Each structure stands twice: as C-alpha cells, then as structure tokens.
Amino acid sequence: MFKFVCYLFLCVFSLGIFAQDLPPSDVQLVNATLVARANSNDGFGLPAGSVLGIADVKINNRGDVAFDIDVIGGEATSGVWFSASGTQGRIVYRSTVEGRLISDPSLNNNGDLVFSQFDFGVTDGVFKFDSNTRATTMVIRPEQNQAFSFSSINDIGTVVTRVVDANGDRSFRYVNGSQARTIAREAVKEPNGTTLSYLFRPVLNNSGFVAAKVRRGERDQTDESQPDTIRLWKPDGSFEVIAVDIHADPNSLFLGFSNSVGISDAKHVVFTATISGDKKAIFLFGEGKVKAVAIEGQGDLEALEAFAPVVNSKGLVAFRGRLKSGKSAIFTGTWDGFNAVVKQGDLVPSDVETAKIYDLADNQGFIGGLSLNDSGLLAFHAGILSKDGERFLGQGIYVLSTTTPPAGR
Predict the structure, then answer these.
(1) Cβ atoms within 10 A of the Cβ of 208, count?
(2) Are 381 and 36 a contacting pair, CB within 8 Å?
(3) Confidence (pTM)
(4) Tell me: the pLDDT tens digits for 278-290?
(5) Could you report how far apart the first and last alpha carbons of the chain are, in Å?
C-alpha cells in the first residue's frame, strides 16, 4: 500500500516535469467504455479517495465486470466492485475486519464471484458473492494455518483454489458444495513417479479443466534449474503435459516459462515462454498443437510485460507488451498475427473529460492483468491523465471491443 501511495505522489509531482505533447500521428481515439474511475478527490462509480492498487479487472460473457478495491473512500477498508452488463456498478462486498485485504475476484458467466479475505499470515476463507441474491457466503472455511490464493469459479459452481498448508506445501483443491478433492499436491509422489516442488497459479474453465505451470522436484527444490512443465488437468484429475522446458527435456524449444497461464472454455491454453536468443514469446495450445502468437522483436513488439496472457474460446489472445517506440500497449493476436489495440498516450473517454492513457516517464500506464470474453470484449485497468497531460485523473477501468487482427506480423 505504501508503494502505491508513493506512486500516486510521483504521478502528481511529475506532471509538470515530464508532460509533453505527442505527435498527432502517434495518438488514436480509442472507443472504450469507462466502467469506473478511482481518484483522490473524486470518482466515477467509486467514492472519492478510493485506491485500486494493481487490481486485475474481470469480464464475463454477459459483459458483467468485477474488480477488487484496496482502499474504499480513504478508509482502511478493502472490497469488491461488481457491475451487471449495462448497469452502473457498485461495491458489493466490504472487508469484515479492518485492515484485511481482498484477492482479485474470479467472475463466472452467471455473475457469481469468488475471492479470499486475508492479511499477511492470516486468512478468513474463500467467499462467494451471488449477484442474483446479493448474498455473500463462505465456500471454503480455513483450517489451522491454511492460506488460499488464485481462487476461481466456473458456471456450474466449481471452485478451484491453491491451498498452502501448515507445512508450507501447496495443493490445488476442487470444491463444489460439500464435495472437495485435491488434484495436485507438492512433496507427494504421483502415480507416474513424479514429485512436484512448486505449484504456480491455477486457472479453471467451464468444463472443469485446470491449467497451470508446475515445477518438478523434492520439497524445497524450487530453484530455476528444476524442470518446469505446463499441465492441463481433466475434471477426473488426470492430466496431459502441454509443454516442457529444457530442464525437463534438453531438446525442448522452451528455455523457461513465466509463472501464469490462461485457459479458455474451448481448452486453449496460452502461456509465455523464453526461447533462443533470450526472447520471450506468447504461445497458444489448441487443436492438439502449440504455436507462437507473438515473439519479441516481431513487428512493432519490442518486449512482453510480466502479466499473464489471456485467451477466449475463439482462440483470440490478449497480452501486455512494449512497442518499439517505448510505449506500453495491449495487444490482441491469434496464430495468424497480432497488433496493438490501445497504447500509452491514446485518448479515451472519461466521466469528466477526454483523457489519455498515462504516458509519463515514470510508469507503464496500464495496471495489472487483462480479461477477455468470448465476444472479444477486453477489460483493462490504466492510469489516466487529462488530454494535455497536466492533471492526473486517477485509475480507470475500461472495456474495449476488439477485432481479430489481420494476418501477418
């Protein structure tokens, strides 16, 4: 929280120092919709003084939007914000203990949310908000010294979360009502003889498939020299290996993987890998094959940024990166090509005036991860400035309609 307050101070302090006009040819007016805005002295859909931190915004196939809030109205209270498609959103949950934090919520197509409430070393459990009844219930009650992270929910109400037990070992747990089972666990030998030393972030789709990066090895063997694989689990707990790095197979194309992956309801899996030349690339698994979507240095893509790519059921991928001009941008792509759909300095609407994506020298402009639904609606989070760059307007949550990029790079 201290870091983010400092970030806000730097934003305001640096306006007069770094502000500069962009050449008109470098700016586009983006037809995005402002969903919410947080700022110190005003806001849209949020009370003045609210702070979003690095909130990852979520959008479902109905167009509902949700995200977590670090500070509500200047108070030491965090919460969850939800908007049904086409309606003004509101805060639907506030932390029940002062100082507690809320995880990034997961949002299914019924408008159900799951999230955890926690503080460092303390967890209150995993909660579900039902947008139809407006009720919040606990769906996973913590046992002694447990912690939960990366909880997600699908349309049939299955929740998957990563659990850390009293020994510090992680596991992936399926929960549906009173039924619960574990599909992967660290430090336990699997039927194939493999032992996992680290489980990274799991992602869940509506068919109950789960994808994640895992690291092989005995307990505490977690350094980068250990073999890494990308797995796709079926609902029955069996899995297939989608990709392995050179520590698992010396002939592999992949030198290593970033920690988080994305999944679609069509069982696409998207991930970031390092390849020869120390370049990072976005790869998409689908139709039984793995192919590159974007590689650093191709086209106008200078570098990928360290946030997980996402994919929808049409095979459209969205990811964050930096252009060769030095500006951060959001890209969409398929196996046939990719392009930037919004970048720093682009003009966007706001509730007070035409704004632009934060483009000063001290910040990437875009904040947190992305979300993409099956209609191609992209939800993102960005800092925004006045059009002339003189005033900080806060943090904006936006929805943008994307189209499949043209073939070629």
Answers:
(1) 16
(2) no
(3) 0.91
(4) 999 999 999 999 9
(5) 40
